[in-house]
Amino acid sequence: MDESLPAVDPAVAATADDIAEMEIRGAATIADAAAEALARQAAQSDVDSPSAFRQQLRAAAKTLYETRPTAVSLPNALRYVLRGMSGETVSELRASIIARAEEFQHDLTQAQSKLGEVGSNRLRDGDVVMTHCHSTDALSCLEAALEDGKELEAIVKETRPRKQGYITAGRLRELGVPVTLIVDNAARRYLDRADHVLVGADSIAADGSVINKIGTSGLAVNARERGVPVMVAAQTIKLHPDTMTGHTVEIEMRDELEVLTDNERAAIGDEQAGEGLTVENPAFDVTPPRYVDAIVTERGQFPPESVVTLMRELFGESTGEPWEP
Ligand SMILES: O=C(COP(=O)(O)O)[C@H](O)[C@H](O)COP(=O)(O)O
Question: Ligand 1 centre from 296 Cα, in Å?
Answer without folding.
Answer: 15
